[in-house]
Specification:
single chain; 291 residues; Rossmann fold; three-stranded antiparallel β-sheet; 12 strands; binds glutamic acid
Length: 291
Amino acid sequence: MTAGRFAPSPSGDLHVGNLRTAVLAWLHARRTDREFLVRIEDLDRVQPGAEERQLADLAALGLDWDGAVVRQSERARLYDAALASLAGRGLVYECYCTRREILEAPSAPHEPPGIYRGTCRNLSDAERLAQAAVRPAALRLRSELPDFTIQDELHGTYEGVVDDFVLRRGDGVVAYNLAVVVDDAQQGVDQVVRGEDLLPSAPRQAYLATLLGNQPPTYVHVPVALNTDGQRLAKRDGAVTYQQLRELGVDAMALIAQSLGLAGSTMAELLEEYDPASLPRDPWVFVPPPG
Ligand code: GLU
């Protein structure tokens, strides 16, 4: 089985930019004869009720998905097994750095802030013990290369940094980068359509996939929605959720279709018209409806 997916974090309602990404992921998967899966990424930042509202909004748009919705909070065993496999090969180490220490560590010129420079990579046992008395350890990947190259249908060949990124946080929560890679592989996801903001994470994830013995998926990082100030669309930009738009008499589906240059008004109609070669390349500027 091959599949595409949409994997929202239930931290609040989806806005119309997120919904547009979901529509694109669905169209792209269906158009390329793949199954379409929905996975709830609920390891972190869960708002009660958000998952139900997100799923209701996807269904209201006419998106359907194959099989049951999967929740990351129910898959700890899979993540633990992946961690154990990496640890067994010496690819995991304990890190005691705080976020602040990492941000303040000296970095090389032109290096984006927050890249981990391996402070805890080679601690002695004594150093580790001393640190462990102060705070719980995060687990990091002992990366064996500085960067990794992925293929993206929109961005072409894309090379990005692979630092010793976190696999499990100090509070015991499995990191997004590990969970997403384990889940995509285990669920047969070989096509990842998602917002462009996640493009810099893709080389880390693709590298981790190869370490776990899996072929990285095909990536399609689509432009995100912007507000009229040119900033990433957010809830505070006003009427941006499916329900808010509905209350103003605006059909989110029609708005999304129009933004994609498509004329249909149901998912089935959009699918007929949709040409994967004409994926949007520019951000979509969302103009709030009057109201
Ligand atoms: N859960 C992530 C988010 O909502 C998306 C992860 C992914 O698509 O890989 O930002």
